Amino acid sequence: MNCACIGHGPYNCIDIVPIFSHLTHDEMEQVASITREKTFSKGEAVYRVGDIRGELYVLHTGLVKVYRLSSDGKEQVIRTVGPGQFLGELSLFSAQHQTDSAIALESSRMCVIAWDRLRNLMERIPSIAFKVMEQLSDRLEQTESLLEQTNLLSVEQRLARYLLETSGERDSFVLNLSKGDLASLLGMTQETLSRRLSSFQAEGLLALEGQRGIHILDRASLERYVENPW
Questions:
Q1: Residue 103 per-residue DSSP state
Q2: Contact of 182 with 161, CB cutoff 8 Å
Q3: Sign of the torsion formed by the C-alpha atoms of 119, 123, 128 and 133
Q4: Confidence band (pLDDT; 50, 70, 90) for 214?
Q5: What is the pTM (predicted TM-score) of this model?
Q6: Residue 205 CA to chain centroid, in angstroms?
Q7: What is the pLDDT of residues 165-213, one digit of tens each?
Q8: What is the DSSP track for 31-94?
Q9: What is the DSSP letter of 204?
Q10: What residue ranges define each of the domains in the chain, with the CATH number in brackets?
Q11: pLDDT at site 56
């Protein structure tokens, strides 16, 4: 076994990633046998646009940003990947070049699986392939939702929705993205994001704590903002 991704409690990446969590212990052992562990330092590239890696990266701990650069060098954040999620899935379908780049936003530990070995395993355990398709379908739906938000929702609505979704049941939390990355993800400039956060604070909806801390003061008003920004 090349990876310590199984057999170390409930928080190993094979146990927690949805495409593998339904497997029996013996089947997980088969996955672990084709898996190697790799750690990426903060700021280190997992892969870059144009690469042909042929690998699936399953995040165990840490946070990764997936992004694209426009012709003029402007960065567009596509999504962030957290523990239990995966990236590099394009290699499953063809040996095409990567169309985006991925970089570790903090020290990140991953289980890395070569796609040719995973495809062979899928032939023996077809349920893995169906789980991969389910996850890709969910990801496509999230992308379509993000495009819809960018085109149809106001800046205030986008920000309010993101804060509510990120906070969950918590009143206080810390943003895991820089303001620049968050602004890119939400389709606005960093200056606009800062102004809208300050505006929400002035209205008594939230309190800003340091660079990334958020304390929600009026959740009901934020929810009404999402429904009607006026």
A1: E
A2: no
A3: positive
A4: very high
A5: 0.75
A6: 27
A7: 899 889 999 998 999 999 988 889 999 999 999 999 999 999 999 889 9
A8: HHHTEEEEEE-TT-EEE-TT----EEEEEEES-EEEEEE-TTS-EEEEEEE-TT-EE-GGGGT-
A9: T
A10: 13-126 (2.60.120.10), 151-227 (1.10.10.10)
A11: 87
